[in-house]
C-alpha cells in the first residue's frame, strides 16, 4: 500500500506544488512551529521532488578547496575596481554576487563563483550574466512557489557551469516576513541538501564556502550600511531601508554563532561600514608576502 502511494505521488506533481502553498499557510498561522514545517518540507521534497538530480550536482564541490582561503565580495559602496583588480592579479578564489556583473566592463576580474538567488536582481542582470564567461554560476532556487520569488529552471542560462542550490526560505519568511525572531537562523553544512536563506545572499555564500572546505574567508564590500545616498559600489541606491543593514548584521552574527566550534575563520576586510561581527583586517596587507 505504501509503495503504491509513493508511485501515485510521483505521478501527481501538483501535490508537491499545492503542498508548498499549504506549508506557507501554516507557516503564517503557526510560525512558532517552523521546525516541524521544515522537517515536513524536507521529507516531502526527498520523496517526490524531481529537482534532486539538478540540485545534487553541487556535491562536486564538497571539500574541494579544503584548507584554502577565499574572498566573499559583496557589492557595498566601499568596494572599488582596484580591489577587484588586486584579487584578479593574485589569482584568488572569489565568491561574488548580484550586481557585481556591472563592474566587468571596467576590469578583467571575474569571480570564481558568481552567486545569485534574488529573482528580481537575476532578471535585471540576466543578459550580463549570460554574455560574460564565468567559471561557475551558482543559483539559489527558493522552496516557495511564488513566481515573483522563485527562479524557475526555464529561466536559467543554458551552460554546463550553472549549478543550482536549494534555498530554504522558511526561516526567512517566518522571521522577516512574519516577525518570528525567536528561532536561531540555521546554517547548512550540507549544501547539496539545502542552503538557508539569511536575508542577504552573503549568508548563503558563507554556507557554500564552508561546504567547499575553505578555512579562511575574507569579506569585502560588506558595508551593511543603507543609510547614505549610495548603497552599492556602482553609485546606486538600493530600494531597501536602513533597517535591512541591521537584519544583515544579525545574519552574520548567526553565521559566527554556527561556526564557533569549527575551524573556519571569517574576517572582515571591508573598508568602513557597520559590520563589526568579525575581526577586521586590512585588505591590502593580505597580499604582502
Provide a descriptive summary of the structure in words:
- 36% of the residues lie in helices and 13% in strands.
- The chain is of the alpha/beta class.
- It folds into two domains: 1-50; 52-287, Alpha-Beta Complex (sialyltransferase cstii, chain A).
- The chain has an eight-stranded parallel beta sheet with strand order 6-5-4-3-2-1-7-8.
- Strand 1 (69-73), helix 5 and strand 2 (94-97) form a beta-alpha-beta unit.
- Helix 2 (13-29) packs antiparallel against helix 3 (34-48).
- It is globular.
- The termini are far apart.
- This is DUF115 domain-containing protein.
- Residues 56-227 form the 6-hydroxymethylpterin diphosphokinase MptE-like domain.
- It holds the Pfam family MptE-like.
Give the topology.
Elements: H1 2-11, H2 13-29, H3 34-48, H4 52-55, E1 69-73, H5 81-89, E2 94-97, E3 113-116, H6 119-131, E4 136-142, E5 162-168, H7 170-177, E6 195-196, H8 201-211, E7 216-220, H9 243-259, E8 265-268
Helix pairs in contact: 2-3
Task: Give the gist of this structure.
This protein is an alpha/beta fold and 289 residues long. The protein is 36% helix and 13% strand.
C-alpha-based Rg, rounded:
19 Å
Q: How many extended strands? A: 8
Strand order of the largest sheet: 6-5-4-3-2-1-7-8
Can you tell me the CATH topology of the largest domain?
A: sialyltransferase cstii, chain A
Averaged pLDDT: 81
Helix content: 25-40%
* DSSP helical segment count: 9
Architecture (CATH level 2) name of the largest domain = Alpha-Beta Complex
Strand content: 5-15%
SSE class = alpha/beta
Domain tally: 2
Low-confidence stretches: 1-6, 8-12
Please provide the ordered H/E string of secondary-structure elements.
HHHHEHEEHEEHEHEHE
Sheet with most strands: 8 strands, parallel
**CATH C-level name of the largest domain:** Alpha Beta
Shape: globular
Amino acid at each position: 500500500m505504501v509503495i503504491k502511494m509513493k508511485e501515485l505521488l510521483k505521478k501527481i506533481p501538483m501535490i508537491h506544488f499545492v503542498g508548498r502553498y499549504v506549508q506557507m499557510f501554516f507557516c503564517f498561522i503557526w510560525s512558532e512551529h517552523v521546525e516541524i514545517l521544515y522537517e515536513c518540507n524536507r521529507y516531502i521534497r526527498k520523496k517526490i521532488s524531481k529537482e534532486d538530480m539538478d540540485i545534487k550536482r553541487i556535491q562536486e564541490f564538497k571539500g574541494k578547496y579544503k584548507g584554502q582561503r577565499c574572498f566573499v565580495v559583496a557589492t557595498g559602496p566601499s568596494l572599488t575596481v582596484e580591489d577587484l583588480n588586486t584579487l584578479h592579479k593574485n589569482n584568488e578564489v572569489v565568491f561574488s554576487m548580484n550586481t557585481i556583473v556591472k563592474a566587468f566592463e571596467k576590469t578583467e576580474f571575474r569571480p570564481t563563483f558568481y552567486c545569485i538567488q534574488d529573482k528580481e536582481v537575476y532578471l535585471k542582470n540576466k543578459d550580463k550574466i549570460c554574455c560574460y564567461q564565468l567559471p561557475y554560476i551558482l543559483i539559489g532556487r527558493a522552496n516557495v512557489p511564488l513566481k515573483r520569488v522563485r527562479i524557475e529552471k526555464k529561466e536559467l542560462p543554458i551552460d554546463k557551469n550553472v549549478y543550482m542550490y536549494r534555498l530554504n526560505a522558511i526561516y526567512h519568511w517566518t522571521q522577516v516576513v512574519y516577525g518570528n525572531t525567536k528561532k536561531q537562523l540555521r546554517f547548512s553544512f550540507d549544501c547539496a541538501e539545502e542552503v538557508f536563506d539569511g536575508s542577504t545572499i552573503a549568508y548563503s555564500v558563507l554556507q557554500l564556502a564552508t561546504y567547499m572546505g575553505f578555512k579562511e574567508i575574507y569579506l569585502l564590500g560588506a558595508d551593511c550600511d543603507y543609510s547614505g545616498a549610495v548603497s552599492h559600489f556602482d553609485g546606486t541606491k538600493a530600494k531597501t531601508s536602513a533597517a535591512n543593514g541591521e537584519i544583515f548584521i544579525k545574519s552574520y552574527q548567526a553565521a559566527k554563532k554556527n561556526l564557533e566550534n569549527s575551524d573556519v575563520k571569517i574576517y572582515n576586510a571591508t573598508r568602513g561600514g557597520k559590520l563589526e561581527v568579525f575581526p577586521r583586517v586590512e585588505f591590502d596587507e593580505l597580499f604582502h608576502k
